[in-house]
Amino acid sequence: MSMPTSRKAQPEPLEPFRPLPVAVFHILVAVADRERHGYAIMQDVAARTDGHLRLSPGTLYGSIKRLLEDGLIEELSERPDPEDDDVRRRYYRITPRGRKVAIEESTRLAKLLRQARATGLAPRTV
After folding, report:
1. Which H or E run includes 29?
2. Cβ atoms within 10 A of the Cβ of 12, count?
3. What is the pLDDT along the chain (126 residues), one digit of tens a residue?
4. What span, in angstroms and rounded, lies between the C-alpha atoms of 21 and 64?
5. Residue 96 backbone phi and psi in degrees, to 5
6. ∠ at Cα 72 (34, 74), nearest 5°?
7. What CA–CA distance (Å, rounded) separates 63 from 21?
8. Integer distance in angstroms from the first to the last C-alpha of the chain?
9. Using N-to-C axis directions, what is the helix angle for 57-69 and 22-30, rounded to 10°?
10. CA separation for the pair 64, 75 (Å, rounded)
11. Interior/surface letters 66-76, b for 16+ CB within 10 angstroms, e for the rest
């Protein structure tokens, strides 16, 4: 009689995430360095893009729902500062999988920018 062998579950490939939608990439960047609630994500994205990208609530929360389903972010069960907070807020943070996807997208974008610079389509410095 043979003993059953345990199999490690293979992680899902990251290919379906490339290229990332712009809003999704910006959300991952916003939660990469700290936990944030939805409105804080919206403010961070607007600030990082000098107001060029303003996420509507529909875009933000639709993207968050998809990011949660795909395991790229997770909702915190504890509140960062419960005494100075609105109980209706939900806080999110990036997962290791989300960080990997964001790094791959950053690498893809950097390569694209290098190619654009090489052909004169982008300035040498930003």
Report:
1. helix 22-30
2. 11
3. 445 554 555 556 666 778 999 999 999 999 999 999 999 999 999 999 999 999 999 999 999 999 999 999 999 988 766 666 777 889 999 999 999 999 999 999 999 999 999 999 999 886
4. 12
5. -55, -40
6. 60
7. 9
8. 66
9. 80
10. 10
11. ebeebebbbee
34: tokens are 């700290």
Token match 């930003």: residue? Answer: 126
Buried b (16+ CB within 10 A) or exposed e, 17-51: beebeebbbbbbbbbeeebbbbebbbebbeeeeee
Per-residue model confidence as pLDDT tens digits over 65-74: 999 999 999 9
